[in-house]
Amino acid sequence: MRNLRVTALVQLLSNTEMKPYLKEIIICAIAIIIAAIAVSYFSMQIQERKQTEAIHIALFDNPEAVATLYINKPQTLSNTLKAKQTIENMLSDQIPPVFLQLAKLYDATTPSLVLFYPKEIVFVAKANGSIIKKMSDSVFAVHYHNYRPVEHKKGPITYYYYPETDNQFLGYFHYKGIMAVSYSKKHLEDIGDRLVQIRRNKPTDRNTEESKVAFELRVNTDYIKSDSIIASDSTIWKFEEKTFPLELSFGENTLCFQGIFNDISLTDSILHDKLKEAFSVQLKELFPESQPETALRAVYSSLLINSCIAYP
Predict the structure, then answer these.
(1) DSSP state letters, 107-123
(2) 95, 142, 237, 296: least surrounded by Cβ within 10 Å?
């Protein structure tokens, strides 16, 4: 069929009656071809954008992480870090400066993740070309003095690694609208492998509703030292779920974590004291310079825990 079309076009152009219009015909044909290519390109771009939008950021969560911070409203975090130096100083106990700089700049409306491992963290977010350029110009270029990163290709993704002290490398990639940053090559490439798998399976968005919680820390309960949480009947209390969600809120110089315990005694004061002690110890380990304060109160049939750290 294609050969017939080409033959017909050649015959048309060789027709003596059509020669006076040859230039116009060629221009028209070129315009049609360009238009077809443009339509095809933009259709592919729209399809790529739809596929990226369908990928919910929660798909990159890892049950093996110590905790995962869901930043459901990145603009709020960006504004908070810009306005409150104390909060930035507080978070710097656990989050390296380059990640805080990225959080300041990442003011998109789509959620992002920070995965915490025993010795490493990973930042994952949706990012278009303009966000990547802003981060590259304002963070990577400044922090690494325009040093050209080492490139590593794995599958369809190119990873970029910047050298730091103590034989460390900060790596990142940007592929199909998803960006990830980490000092851990293994965890970074795990995110890349996961992204390739997700796109191959053509996922649908797991949660299209906007979360009302700006920041949520989902703690892996395997890492919470619960052996010391003993009830009044001398039994050891255990978490029922793999993760325990805590809502984060920022004050002028405080960072608070609030969670809800269900199916727990509302009158066992010994158990309550042990819970408060365990959470305060955990926060003290995470933020050594802080002075944690933990309170419990009954809310209907549940128990509300509120742990806050304050910096002078």
Answers:
(1) --SS-EEEEE-SS-EEE
(2) 142
List the structure tokens of 190: 């795990």
Q: Which amino acid, one-letter code, is at 114?
A: V
Distance CA 4, CA 8 (A): 6
**Amino acid letter for position 273:** D
Which DSSP string corresponds to 46-103? HHHHHHHHTS-GGGG--TTSSEEEEES-HHHHHHHHHH-HHHHHHHTTTS-HHHHHHH
First to last CA, the chain: 79
Do 182 and 120 form a contact (C-beta atoms < 8 A)?
yes
Closest by CA to 71, choosing from 91, 86, 54, is 91
Q: Which helix (H) or strand (E) holds 131?
A: helix 129-135
Strands (E), the chain: 67-71, 112-116, 121-126, 150-154, 157-163, 169-175, 178-182, 215-220, 243-250, 254-261, 293-299, 302-310
The CA-atom distances, in angstroms, between 1 and each of 6, 7, 8 are 9, 10, 11
Neighbouring C-beta atoms of residue 244, cutoff 10 Å = 18
Q: Can you tell me whether residue 184 is helix, strand or coil?
A: coil
pLDDT in tens, the chain (312 residues): 555 554 555 555 555 555 555 566 666 667 667 665 655 444 444 444 544 455 788 889 998 898 899 998 888 888 888 888 778 877 887 788 888 888 888 877 788 899 999 888 999 998 888 888 888 888 887 777 768 889 999 999 999 998 887 778 899 999 988 999 999 999 999 999 999 998 888 655 444 445 567 889 888 888 777 666 777 777 777 777 888 889 988 887 788 889 888 877 778 888 888 888 888 887 777 777 777 888 888 888 888 889 888 766
Q: At what angle do helices 97-105 and 74-83 cross, to 10 degrees?
A: 120
